[in-house]
Amino acid sequence: MKINEKSIEKNPTELLKKLDKLHPSDIAHSLKKIKKSNPDDFIFVLKNLPEDVLGDVILELPEKLREYAYNELTIEKLTDAVDELESDDQTDILQEIEELNVDKAKEIFDGLEVDDQEEINWLKRYEAGEAGAYMQTELFSANLNETISNSIEKLRIAKEEKELENIHQVYIVDDNKILVASILLEDLIIFDYKKTYKEIIEEHGEKRFKPYKVNDDELIKDVAKQFEKYDLSVVAVVGYQNMLIGRITSDDILDVIEDSATEQMYQLAGVHDDFEHDSFIFTAKKRAMWLFINLGTAILASMVIGFFDQTIQAFVALAVLMPIVASMGGNAGTQTLAVMVRRMALGEIDFENSKDAIMKEILVSLLNGILFAFVVGIITYFWFNTVLLGLVIALSMIINLFSAGFFGATIPLFLKKYNIDPAVGSTVLLTTVTDIVGFFSFLMLAKLILL
Questions:
Q1: Nearest 5°: phi and psi at 73?
Q2: Which of 63, 97, 125 is the last residue of a domain?
Q3: pTM exceeds cut of 0.70
């Protein structure tokens, strides 16, 4: 449904009247607009959201606004909202509140049902990067010896009581809760409801119903790769001796992928993802650190230029052409760097199997170097009417684009080998290399050929 943002900002009650027609993410988007114009209206809308919507809306808000909401909403309101959520989301919210106010988090936790408390305590055992931290314990499972009709009746009751959401299949377990098979609901409806799952599996073969599963201590980034590779909507999570303990759905994996991609993009630029809600002074301080590092590398490049001051004085045209060499090298290196960091993040290459990827990037950069060497050489000749000057910048262009491809491909690999995030340090190092190599090669060739 299309929302009139300006109308809602002026009269937030309009948003409350349209809740039935809006998704929680749309409500959260409108709340961000309201918060910017009037924080009091933001809290007013939050306090008047129904409990079955409030929790989902809070989860869609940015981190800073979630913290603001936790501080402003009452314990009773938050308890009711958390109670409506699935176990993984309950755990996420409680852990966030715990970081702000331990006592408040404890009171909310104490207000939940015993079953919910046990599930939350179970999920809190996992580290942030483990699959278990992202799973929900609510799922549709049936015993191997259970009839389909009996399990379908259990599912109907669970759906009526709103205990289960987004059910795609039934997980089949034995008497020890060991995961045996997984049957899609669209397949389940064509079978004889009087038969047991054991009979169905024996009749059609175990291979047809082989479940997709991950271990609870597996890294979530590896789980995300499986979702992408096999186009999964949900995956079972197993623990000790293959016991079924939960599931991870695609909405959680999409958040993981989006967060990872966003983090890499910001790190390559030397910024962080909270800039929208941080004060301008705090944001300026964070960015200043990287600007100081860039200043240091720029001084190094300037020192290289200083070594050839007499050459530049003899040929003023060199000063005009230097930015072209540095800019082309920097852009070519950034292209290579972006490709390599992305492929490393997807797990397509690592330090051991990177030879082909490096060779490809070098050859691409070298080919572009030759192409643009010819183009810029011709332009320089007609611009300054000097053949040798065109030759100098052409040779420098080849050298710099070659180095841009080589170092753009190898720098992130070496950083990763020594456990340094390639997305954080690669850009500064690459800029330093392309500037120094570009200026040095251009001015040294000019000194050797023109003087």
A1: -80, 150
A2: 125
A3: no
9: in domain: yes
Residue spans of alpha helices (H) in 346-421: 355-384, 387-417
Each residue's pLDDT tens digit, 39-63: 888 889 889 999 889 999 999 998 8
- Return the CATH number at 15: 1.25.60.10
The encoded tokens of residue 123 equal: 């999920």
In CATH, what number is assigned to the domain containing residue 178? 3.10.580.10
383: CATH: 1.10.357.20
> Is 312 part of any domain?
yes
Q: Are residues 322 and 421 in the same domain?
A: yes
Rounded CA separation 407/415 (Å): 12
Q: How far apart are CA 146 and CA 151, in angstroms?
A: 7
Contacts of 385 (CB under 8 A, 6+ apart): none
Query: What are the tens digits of pLDDT across the range 164-200?
Result: 888 889 999 999 999 999 999 989 889 999 999 999 9
- How many other β-carbons are positioned within 10 Å of the β-carbon of residue 158? 15
User: Does residue 119 share a domain with residue 216?
Assistant: no
Q: 404 CB contacts (<8 Å, ≥6 apart)? A: 329, 330, 332, 333, 336, 365, 430, 433, 434
